[in-house]
Design a protein that fits this description.
The protein is mainly α. It folds into two domains: about 80 residues, no CATH class; about 45 residues, no CATH class. It contains eight helices and two strands. It has a two-stranded antiparallel ribbon. Helix 1 packs antiparallel against helix 4. The longest helix has 18 residues.
């Protein structure tokens, strides 16, 4: 399955999903570029590694590393994670939003700087966003203007 023909019935074409799918499809490329050293699970466990490589295909045909903890194929795990993301887009989006909220709360200076740079790079979009925000929240906009005028009586 190529990324250009990637389509799930009932779901719109999603760039993020296509991007994830390209990661799954590129496993063969990754294996030929930097092929891991063949090592048994017991040797990997003794060395404290998280993954091992046997050089043999899994039951789904992937010649890839396996996890020491579960013997699971890394590529099968990646494909399963992709399927779950596609099936649970709302959960994924909510978790992403929540992670963003936590990051912004923990890093307010970085968030303000990021927003300042975006407004400088996109003045028309920023103006349109402010216009829509004021139209959607007129009471809040009037209160903000009142406070600004009181603080800037020049």
């Amino acid at each position: 399955m190529s990324v250009s023909t990637f389509n799930w019935p009932g779901l719109p074409q999603l760039d993020a999903v296509a991007k994830l799918m390209s990661l799954v499809e590129s496993s063969e490329t990754r294996m030929t570029i930097d092929s891991p050293r063949i090592i048994s699970r017991d040797e990997a466990r003794a060395l404290g590694l998280k993954r091992y490589f046997t050089g043999k295909p899994c039951k789904h045909g992937h010649v890839a590393e396996h996890y020491v903890s579960s013997c699971g194929c890394v590529e099968c795990d990646r494909a399963h994670a992709l399927e779950w993301r596609v099936a649970n887009l709302e959960k994924v989006r909510e978790r992403s939003r929540e992670g963003g909220r936590k990051y912004r709360a923990a890093n307010p200076q970085k968030d303000r700087e990021r927003k300042r740079k975006w407004r400088a790079a996109n003045p028309e979009k920023a103006r349109e966003h402010r216009r829509r925000s004021r139209a959607a929240n007129p009471k809040k906009a009037r209160e903000y203007q009142r406070l600004w005028r009181a603080a800037n009586k020049d």
